[in-house]
Amino acid sequence: MLDTTHIDEVTATLDAFGEALAAGDIDKAVACFTDDCYWRDLVSFTWNIKTMEGRDSVREMLESQLSHVKPSAWAPDENELVDHADGLTTAWITFETDVSRGYGQARLRDGKIWTLLTSMTELKGHEEPLGFERPLGAKHGAGKNRTTWKEEREAEEAELGYTRQPHTVIVGGGQGGIALGARLRQLGVPTIIIEKNDRPGDSWRNRYKSLCLHDPVWYDHLPYLPFPPNWPVFSPKDKIGDWLEMYTKIMELNYWTRSTCKSAEYDAARKEWTIVVDRDGEEVTLKPEELVLATGMSGKANVPEFPGMATFKGDQHHSSKHPGPDAYKGKKAVVVGSNNSAHDICAALWENDVDVTMVQRSTTHIVKSDSLMDIGLSALYSEQAVADGMTTQKADLTFASVPYAILADFQKPVYAAIKEQDQAFYDGLEKAGFRLDWGADDSGLFMKYLRRGSGYYIDIGASQLIIDGEIKLAHGQVTEIVEDGMVLDDGTKLEADLIVYATGYGSMNGWAADLIGQDVADKVGKCWGLGSDTPKDPGPWVGEQRNMWKPTQQEGLWFHGGNLHQSRHYSQFLSLQLKARMEGLDTPVYGIPETHHTG
């Protein structure tokens, strides 16, 4: 239902809220919220990614931040409709602070704010050169000794890191580093991306040959340059690799391939890093102000240590090193693990006539890809959503507008509907002996991903192979590796010519330990997780992804990662934080959580 009553309701609430903030009347501002309110801020007020839960939390933030934020110009976005359903009025809003412009969403209940999303879209005076402000490119007129675009790019590549220092160094040139690098390029932040591989996109090319994206194309666009309309719904890994390589060139990123960081040390007095890089055999010392670790949300590979591994006569490796099935035709393989990589690898091995057994050590959440797209994603990320006027930015912000504290309540009906629709599928899996779960509170895949980054499989075909007995199942913990296979804790022996350890990854701060030192890794603590006190996401509650895309306990150190959606969405807010620091703006950070878990 849409009518002027609800538009007037939003306008009146925003007017009262804005007037209270402008007057510095925090009591009146807080009174604009419901008792059970949530305010999620993406940089605008907190220079952080932070959710305030309840009126007291809103009050504490405003007492800390209001005097320097100086918010103003609150209004409904006149280009968007106000929606009213189920007792909630939802509106897109615009606002400003002293140094930025912002966009967000408000959900009102009985004229008061229940959820509020505020996000920084640009810094005043430092806007991206987009649209009407795009660069001319051509140099009209005449002049002696003028340089071409190619000459200017070559000069930049020769100078940056040698005669001129970057402001920011990004370690890791996968999708996260590339997306952030593109944002920083548009903001004029001198940046170097350090990548160990030979070419951009190799982090995808070098994985097992059957790997493809399990997320649909509408969810996976990179900043500025969306996939073309004929791009496949699910992208094969090598196609993604080629796209990332072309994107890196088109977006003019300073991307150092065949390069590794040997060490990094922070000088707090100078507010500067000293980073030693091996650039294709040449040692280069960089002195940036900011260091971003974009080495992958999953962090370092968890390679297990089982008794007897040295005696195994076949091949054994972590899933991240799996070359594909070609060398194992006619042989026996055991894959330890039962999440995405394990399923993909098992299916590819079966397709290549390998006798393959999956070892399931704990329950796994499975959702069929088609069902996830139809029920879980279609309203925001689908061809129909695009046809209905949904943009990538609106989809991202809609998802971001639901605070993590209540997101599970939004997700439970989605997965209940999927379970009902696909009951025969799940019955078949359980009959085959596969042990299923739906998350700690039946909230499904997204909450598992946000809480722990593991424990699920988006089914693109392997589940039917399990149902049909083509992929064999074993259960339990590995107690010993023997020369021709492995032994489980119930005494079962599995013969194998190949063992793949699809045993996941550790926290990203493991990279910080290797590069900077264990003391810094422990100082910043665990990356990822919400503190939900569910399996692999220990409490206390922090309400946002630990350490991701925002300031950490180590000055000048940032973490950037996640899937393509998160790399796109959160790179905007991380780039604005880095730009503000380069320009010397005052960035008082509110609410960096204490470190409770070091790994």
TrEMBL record:
<dbReference type="Pfam" id="PF12680">
    <property type="entry name" value="SnoaL_2"/>
</dbReference>
<feature type="domain" description="SnoaL-like">
    <location>
        <begin position="16"/>
        <end position="114"/>
    </location>
</feature>
<dbReference type="GO" id="GO:0050660">
    <property type="term" value="F:flavin adenine dinucleotide binding"/>
</dbReference>
<keyword id="KW-0560">Oxidoreductase</keyword>
<feature type="region of interest" description="Disordered">
    <location>
        <begin position="130"/>
        <end position="149"/>
    </location>
</feature>
<dbReference type="InterPro" id="IPR032710">
    <property type="entry name" value="NTF2-like_dom_sf"/>
</dbReference>
<dbReference type="GO" id="GO:0004497">
    <property type="term" value="F:monooxygenase activity"/>
</dbReference>
<dbReference type="InterPro" id="IPR050982">
    <property type="entry name" value="Auxin_biosynth/cation_transpt"/>
</dbReference>
<protein>
    <submittedName>
        <fullName>NAD(P)/FAD-dependent oxidoreductase</fullName>
    </submittedName>
</protein>
<dbReference type="InterPro" id="IPR037401">
    <property type="entry name" value="SnoaL-like"/>
</dbReference>
<dbReference type="InterPro" id="IPR036188">
    <property type="entry name" value="FAD/NAD-bd_sf"/>
</dbReference>
<dbReference type="Pfam" id="PF13738">
    <property type="entry name" value="Pyr_redox_3"/>
</dbReference>
